[in-house]
Specification:
Chain lengths: 368, 470
């Protein structure tokens, strides 16, 4: 697993954002070309690396500087740690806006917490330092609990950096008509809104997200997103309570939510509440792919693009494998014993690092 | 209070009724539902069904309302930037097909090629195209007779556009070293006519053994030489003497072509001089429908799936929004938008059919020329009839959301565009093809389901994926 938090020593009071640079990695670059938030590699010794920039110096411990060149760090000097909030070598960079949430999903991978620290100022600086053409994920908690800051942040960064794209995960509970203008201010071709809908049945959806009335609110906000021309990736985590309802959900999408860019059906991640509720929630797609298949066929017959996220390839029947890209982020990906000689491995996203060895798939590795 | 979107209906031979709304949502039901619908007597289960299937809404801007508006909007085509140019560098041809679709002249004729000035003006026109991608189709006559002009255009486009593709529509009769070398390039594709088996092809096109042999050996050489997808072919079908379709499919499959675009002998060009007899339309519709059934049966038998190109387009058009690649099912069907034709004398035409129609002197459908530019007022006149939304017949037709228009076809056949729609050949063809689409998708046998699934590009198709209400 790739470390996302590293040890640092910095002489400061308040958290700050820097980008790490080493000039060996950028031949021909003048020091003067540095951004005010850049710190440049000065010296390396057995224990760490010394970086110097306009605001002072920073010592990075326990990681090879070549692995983190170009990374953007959010440094917490009090704690002596830094979060690599943008890793220059990774296509999967996500800014965690808040840990608060108004829903309490049965499979939440990151159960919400009460406290909140507003980091938008730091995020804005970090995004400005992101590599050319990057897509930046925005996640939580529920980012739109801080909707005004979020939309302001997006507008500002996207204006300054016309090469950046954003992918925002939101439960879609907090939009209203008054947000029209703020949404129109965004270049809609560069923001995708990842919105979860678990079922066509209000009760099933509300039960999963732990919030009565969530389904109804979500539907009216999906209409809002359509009207402002937002790109929507509709996300459905596959679970026992909603698996059999996928064909019906597909019909609902074709009739009532046809404006989505993609329908992402996602296999369950064994972490957070999902781990606690695993035996009640996990649907073994290798044993029973049928409702998924019927949902996919229906949606695709109506021209809706469908993707399978986080499905080990061998658990997906052959005709549907081309819909299952390798989606598990590099830093959380692993393979199991069954994968050792698998010929699909290069195209397979494998498992989340924290997936139990008793993986639960009766048909794992059969395709190998 | 629930509001219903208006429904149109069409009765099928089995007495079932198809209902469709303006956004292309549809379902099958029966006469008693029609009664309830027409007499304001819908039951609560009717209403529930209609709500679930997207045919009603509660209030403006709610999700069902918004989705309906979205689906409707996505079924309309919008004018796109010019990115496809059909060029006719010469009208001369080294074949004289019995019904030549392109009004050719003899190989030795003079004055039917681009002049130096025309070439210059064509390149200047191409330069004005704003996008970064272009597709050029070389038509004729036989365009390979003027390889020099093809070279000049291709060199220019490769330098001017970041992505350029070229299609040479050739009869594959005379391919010298230079022609082979020209076709070799990865950005260059071959399109030819292949009317079926040897016998049919000879009867309709080549007229003698030697030429037929040349054609087939060149086709075989090209197929052997190039990757699949490089060569496409179209069969032209004479309704009075249709080819053996089984042999035709075999022939196409042998050359690696799995999508067959069956076309009737064109009414325009010199083809209209031929007498196709009474009821050519009815016979065509029957032939086409039989061809679809043959395909379904053959796909099932061989396990190697082939398709009829236009039928697949119409099938997708029925089920998806946005599936209007083919211009005949675009609505509105804007002229001189994303494609245009440049004739051998530098004149612009909105379509190849318009070019042929003008050449036989029936009407002048040219829309400017490469020196003076596109005549926008004439384009606008054509565009004013290029949609079916307000046509007094189409507005009652259940197929309106799937269908399109073809102003040029109407003019060519009737000299006018204001005929009752049901009397036009365009309408007759489309009523029949959509009837066939609906017949096939509601079938329950394995063979039909497998072909529909393949044509739609999905794993499985089944009648449960269609709405039926009783
Ligand atoms: S066995 Fe192969 S396909 Fe299955 S999870 Fe492992 S690598 Fe992926
Ligand atoms: S042209 Fe004919 S088939 Fe097409 S919409 Fe009009 S009436 Fe219907």
């Amino acid at each position: 697993m790739i470390p996302l938090r590293i040890k640092v020593e910095a002489n400061a009071e308040q958290p700050f954002v820097v980008r790490l640079r080493s000039f060996e990695a950028m031949p021909g670059t003048e020091r003067g070309a540095c951004h005010p938030h850049d710190v440049c590699l000065e010296a390396v010794d057995a224990n760490g690396a010394e970086y110097v920039g306009e605001g002072g110096s920073l010592r990075i411990l326990g990681i090879d500087p070549s692995e983190i060149d170009g990374d953007v760090l959010l440094v917490n000097p009090q704690r002596g740690t830094a979060d690599r909030i943008i890793r220059s070598s990774s296509p999967h960079n996500t800014l965690l806006v808040t840990e608060r949430c108004d829903q309490l999903c049965v499979m939440c991978s990151q159960p919400p917490k009460k406290q909140h620290v507003d980091l938008f100022e730091h995020f804005a600086i970090a995004a400005m330092l992101a590599p050319e053409g990057a897509t930046i994920g925005i996640s939580g908690g529920e980012p739109t609990l801080f909707k005004d800051q979020l939309l302001g942040f997006l507008a500002r960064v996207m204006r300054a950096r016309e090469d950046l794209h954003f992918h925002v995960l939101t439960n879609g509970q907090h939009f209203d008509d008054a947000d029209r203008e703020a949404m129109h201010a965004l270049d809609r071709s560069r923001v995708v809104w990842g919105v979860p809908l678990y079922s066509a049945e209000p009760d099933v959806h509300d039960e999963i997200v732990g919030k009565p009335g969530a389904h109804e609110k979500l539907l009216s906000n999906l209409a809002f997103l359509c009207r402002v021309g937002a790109q929507v990736e509709l996300r459905t985590v596959l679970m026992r309570p909603n698996a059999d309802g996928l064909p019906r959900l597909a019909r609902f999408l074709a009739a009532s939510v046809p404006f989505i860019q993609t329908w992402a059906i996602m296999q369950l991640e064994n972490i957070g509440y999902a781990r606690q509720n695993w035996s009640r929630l996990f649907h073994d797609s290798s044993s029973n792919f049928s409702p998924i298949a019927r949902g996919i066929d229906f949606a695709r017959s109506r021209g809706i693009d469908v993707q399978l996220y986080n499905f080990p390839l061998c658990t997906v029947p052959l005709p549907y494998r081309n819909l299952a890209p390798s989606t598990i982020s590099d830093w959380k990906r692993t393979y199991l014993e069954a994968c050792r000689d698998c010929r699909l491995r290069n195209h397979c996203g494998g498992f989340f690092e924290w997936h139990p060895k008793e993986h639960g798939y009766a048909g794992l590795g059969r395709a190998a | 209070m629930t509001n219903l979107w208006p429904l149109r209906f069409r009765e099928f031979a089995d007495r079932s009724l198809l209902f469709a709304d303006d956004a292309g949502g549809f379902f099958k039901s029966d006469a008693s539902f029609l009664d309830r619908y027409a007499s304001d007597g819908l039951t609560s289960s009717d209403k529930e069904f209609l709500r679930d299937s997207g045919h009603s809404y509660d209030k403006q801007f709610d999700l069902p309302w918004t989705s309906f508006a979205y689906r409707w909007a996505r079924r309309q085509s919008k004018p796109q930037d010019l990115n496809y140019v059909i060029l006719v560098p010469t009208l001369r041809c080294n074949l004289a097909c019995g019904y030549c679709q392109v009004s050719r002249v003899a190989e030795t004729a003079r004055g039917f090629d681009w002049s130096d000035e025309t070439l210059k003006a064509v390149l200047a026109f191409l330069k004005t195209i704003e996008g970064s991608e272009i597709k050029i189709e070389f038509q004729g006559g036989e365009p390979l007779l003027r390889l020099d002009l093809l070279e000049a255009v291709r060199d220019f486009c490769r330098a001017r556009f970041s992505s350029a593709q070229f299609v040479v529509c050739t009869n594959l009769q005379h391919l010298d070293e230079a022609a082979w070398a020209f076709l070799e390039a990865d950005d260059t594709f071959i399109s030819t006519s292949l009317d079926g088996d040897r016998e049919t092809h000879e009867r309709q096109r080549t007229h003698d053994r030697a030429r037929t042999t040349t054609f087939f050996s060149n086709l075989e050489a090209a197929v052997a030489r190039y990757p699949e997808g490089k060569i496409s072919a179209l069969p032209t079908v004479d309704v009075t003497a249709p080819p053996d379709f089984e042999a035709l499919l075999e022939s196409y499959e042998k050359y690696g072509i799995r999508s067959v675009y069956l076309r009737p002998i064109n009414h325009q060009g010199f083809a209209r001089k031929l007498d196709q007899g009474e009821n050519a339309l009815a016979r065509w519709n029957e032939l086409h429908a039989d061809f679809i059934d043959l395909l379904i049966e053959r796909n099932h038998r061989t396990g190697r799936f082939m398709e009829e190109y236009y039928f697949s387009q119409c099938l997708k058009r029925v089920l998806h929004f946005g599936a209007d690649n083919h211009v005949d099912i675009r609505n509105p069907n804007f002229f001189a938008a994303d494609y245009i034709v440049v004739d051998h004398d530098g004149r612009f035409y909105p379509t190849d059919e318009a070019r042929m129609l003008s050449r036989i002197g029936r009407i002048d459908l040219s829309i400017g020329d490469v020196t003076s530019g596109i005549d926008r007022s004439k384009v606008q006149t054509l565009n004013s009839g290029a949609f079916n939304h307000f046509d007094p017949d189409c507005i009652h037709c259940a197929y309106q959301p799937f269908c399109g228009t073809d102003v040029v076809d109407d003019i060519s056949r009737y000299g006018r565009i204001d005929l009752p729609r049901y009397e036009t050949s365009f309408c007759g063809r489309h009523l029949a093809i959509f009837d066939k689409v609906f017949e096939v998708i509601y079938r329950q046998d394995e063979a039909s389901k497998a072909s529909v699934a393949t044509w739609l590009g999905i794993a499985d198709w089944d009648i449960s994926m269609l709405a039926v209400h009783s």
